[in-house]
Amino acid sequence: MSNSVDFKSLFKYQITMLIVVVFGLILPLIGCSDKKETPEYKIGFSQCVGSDLWRKTMLDEMKTELSLRPGTKLSYADANNSSSKQIDQVKQMIEEGIDLLIISPNEALPLTKIVEETYNKGIPVIVIDRKTSSPLYTAYVGAENYQVGKIAGEYLANSLKGSGNVVEVMGLPGSSPAIERDRGFMDALKKHPQIKVNGQFYGDWLGENTEVQLLKNKDKLKNVDAIFAHNDVMATSTRRVLQKLNLNKRIQVVGVDALPGNGGGLNLVSNKTLTASVLYPTGGKEAINIAMRILNRESFSKENILQTVVIDSSNVQLMKLQWARISSQQNDIERQQTLLADQFKVYNSQRLVLNFIVITLVLAVVFGGLAFHALLENRKINKSLELKNAEILNQRNQLIEMSEKAQAATEAKLNFFTNISHEFRTPLTLILSPLEDLLKNERIKTSAGNNLKLINKNVYRLLRLVNQLMDYRKIEHKKFKLHATANNIIDFIKEILDSFKHSAEKRNIDLRLVIKESPGVVWFDVNILDKVIFNLLSNALKFTSDNGRIYITISKTEDTVHIDVEDNGVGMTDIELKHIFDQFYQSDVNYSRGSGLGLSLSKELILLHKGDISVNSQKWQGTTFRIALPLGDTHLTAEEKVAQEQQSAKLYDQIKIYTTEHDHAAIKEKDRSFEHIKDQSILIIEDNQDLLDYLTDKFEGTYEIFTASTGTNGLAEAYEKIPDLIITDVVVPGISGKNLTQQLKSDIRTSHIPIILLTAQGSIEQQVNGIQSMADVYITKPFNFEYLQANVENLIKNRVILKEHYTSDISSSGVKRTITNVIDKKFLNDFAGIVEHNLGNEHFSVDDISKAIGISRVQLYRKIKALLNCSITDYILNRRLKKAKYYLNNEEYSISEITYMVGISSPTYFSTIFKNKYGMTPTEYKKTRLQ
């Protein structure tokens, strides 16, 4: 058996290693073709202006340059002299995704916005030939149009020998090249006042428009010696017009572009159609070079001005030869790229076949090994499955048996749950009835009225919880039967509303019924719907502040009556709204806690009526519950409808259960004018007002009491009052009791204050967690007041002992202070160090210590008073006298020197306070030491 196991393990290891080796060989083969030495970029190029030949020349230059940069793609679009079309083309390029935009704008102003938008999206923009009206672009490439016009003007001035008449044929009105070329041309002619400009015409860069404009103004051409056209296209058309007018031979024509190829400026100058042409480089090659520098994050210039020159009969042949050579080189490059692409295809095809063969062989070996291994494992698995099937059958039988037992146990628990809830009513009744008798007794009511009312209020609260539990069980077991009758719902709600009037008036809450449209008679169960209305009104009163409002609005649609209960209370968060109707749900952030059954039960009771209940709320803006009940009785079965009967007998019990908790005992105003000032103070943080009042009443005879109903307010009170002890509930609104404890114990201002946590969380884990939060005592509810009082007295007594210990340590020289609280120890060390360091400074004050430690003067005073039971001034004076005593014992300084060394300004004052402290003057003390 051992040999079999070793063989299988060895076989598995070999198969695993074979797979690793094979894929180690295959993956480099598969991935080698995917390696790219250069990154891939996509460049968008939008071209609009210039003649067809000029645009073609620019595009050819770009393609020539890109042919040397594999992996970069060019997306080209020609707008054909239309600004709107060019804008749409750029937008489409951006949507398709480009890394960089090259644009030759048709007009400066219309194209400015799209160029700015592209630039602001983080896409680099290179502007060619003409700029936009904004500096928001990455780089500009183009000839200086002003210089082109100036060179043309200077050439004509030299050719005409400083005198003559000229005509200017300009490009598109408003375009920056036309404006700049005209300005340069005119500036050049200003130096030659004998040269007159007979006319200026706009040819819009087009030959047809140029012919029309010149023929209209042919009279102005008769005495012309030279014509300057802003491009070669318009210059060629100008020459045709002159031929038609028989003015051809004596008039010089100068154009701009000097492009190669058929119809280009070079050929036109060569065949003497044009006298000269100013070279206007397209910038295609330069634009691609700058684009690659931008994409590769290399340095580049924003403004790239291309050089220009005049091409005439003296140099035209040389320019043609250079261009022919460039064209030949481009053809060679394209031919070589075609050969490389063919070779790459052959290589990929061969590599694919090789990879396929290798992978097939490897997979055959691997699958063969796996098949052999699977055969061995299959036998083992079949045996294992037989054993597992038998085991599963046995487990299934056991599960069925356990399920039956669990179901029986659950039913027994639920029955016990129902019965014990029912049994609670008997002792509650026996408590409630004698309690009401005691409340009627004026003598007993005078001496213990508040305590009896507190008991009465919480008995009714228990009774309400028991009723909710029993109703919940009835709904679960489908035993809650509907007994609906036809009733006037307005009178029904008015009667309930009157029950809450007293509680609302005491808190100045506007409680009213608003009837938008009377629904008439509505079918509902009086003893069920009243539970829902009572619960909603009780919640509204609970969560609405004093001077607030609660409106009940009745309205109807064609077949439904709506009852809205609206308040302007604290409202709910989105998380609370999501779970508000869940069973047993209790919000962690709300200002009051209940059983979590009320709203869930209300929803079930409304569903019994075939209605619905919904809620709308916003935090700190209020809440609205809407009940929707169907009109008529067709939605009810015959068993759910009963004859009209008096059901108001039960309403009194419901009123007492739901309204008693809103009755607040009158607050007794105490005359504090003759009240004894307490030595110690306690801060009590509790959101249950009754418990807060109870604890305040119990402790205020002995201690100064501060109170807070939220953790946030409690934290602020602790920082402001610095009490001697804090009692807080764990679950309070805002900051929880545990978090509050951690913050106070971690703060140098309050770390010394003992804290007692009160909580209903009584498990061992929760108690341990409470102590770990740095609390001094953790007491679970319900608690014995004497036990709480004993803990309070013990903690305060221990704090007094610590104070005495620290106070005595002020004058001791060799005793080392011991303290368990690390923060307090650090505080005292820092405090003592600051004082010791400044003993020689007679101007040293409490304000200096406050600034050095980083707390206010008041908080520093309270902290030192709590830890050392002395004032800061007394502490500093004692340290100075102690230091002086040391100097008198161990050093040879004079009395005056020692006086100033310990920071006392007057030797006389020093002698007085030293004698008060030690019973003799410094001089007498020094003589005693020498004896």
TrEMBL record:
Keywords: DNA-binding, Membrane, Phosphoprotein, Transcription, Transcription regulation, Transmembrane, Transmembrane helix. It is an enzyme of class 2 (transferase). SMART domains: HATPase_c (SM00387), HisKA (SM00388), HTH_ARAC (SM00342), REC (SM00448). Pfam families: HATPase_c, HisKA, HTH_18, Peripla_BP_4, Response_reg. InterPro entries: CheY-like_superfamily (IPR011006), HATPase_C_sf (IPR036890), HATPase_dom (IPR003594), His_kinase_dom (IPR005467), HisK_dim/P_dom (IPR003661), HisK_dim/P_sf (IPR036097), Homeodomain-like_sf (IPR009057), HTH_AraC (IPR018060). Residues 829-928 form the HTH araC/xylS-type domain. It comes from the Bacteria. The chain crosses the membrane at residues 12-32, 352-376. Its EC number is 2.7.13.3. CDD domains: HATPase (cd00075), HisKA (cd00082), PBP1_sensor_kinase-like (cd06308), REC_OmpR (cd17574). The modification 4-aspartylphosphate is found at residue 729. Residues 419-633 form the Histidine kinase domain. The keyword Amino-acid biosynthesis does not apply. This is histidine kinase. It comes from Pedobacter panaciterrae.
